[in-house]
Amino acid sequence: MNLSIEKVASEVGCGKTTIYRRWPTKPQLVAAAIIDNIEVGEVPNTGDVVEDLVEHAWQNRENFRRSKNRSGNNGLLLAMFNMDVIPIISDSFMQARHTMGREIIARGVEREQVSGELDHDLIIDTLAGLTLFRITLKPEATGRTDDEIKDTYRSLVRSLIGRQS
């Protein structure tokens, strides 16, 4: 992790002991910065599981977009994938987002829009994976309009749940 507590302390105008008193480790400091700059969001409920999952995925995209606008790149949000940071933010963010996705799919099962036999965790993870991949490893795919990007998500969700339209 390319972070200096001394540099952070200097930037905010305090001693490094002050930082260590509140965040005893670099991963805890990074996790706090990430959590402070992202939103878990609300569970979408449009009445259609495809649109709900698209909106759920879009919330993740917006978190990356806000992170990039604040820092000039995705460094802060990508730091969440540091092996020392993951366990710290898992309970407060990742698990909450995953639970929201499972709620959306459970509603879809109740409405008979999704089969209860599908691997619901795989659907949620695939949507999150697409977001991460497109933003970090294939950024040229993000040059399209928001509507075009949402259509990509719709296509993926329909494929994952076996629904034509």
UniProtKB/TrEMBL annotation:
Keywords of the record: DNA-binding, Transcription, Transcription regulation
Record feature DNA-binding region, as residue ranges: 4-23
Residue ranges of every copy of the HTH tetR-type domain listed in the record: 1-41
SUPFAM superfamilies membership: Homeodomain-like (SSF46689), Tetracyclin repressor-like, C-terminal domain (SSF48498)
UniProt keyword annotation of Protease present: no
Signal peptide positions (record): none
Pfam families the UniProt entry points to: TetR_C_11
Name of the protein in question: TetR/AcrR family transcriptional regulator C-terminal ligand-binding domain-containing protein
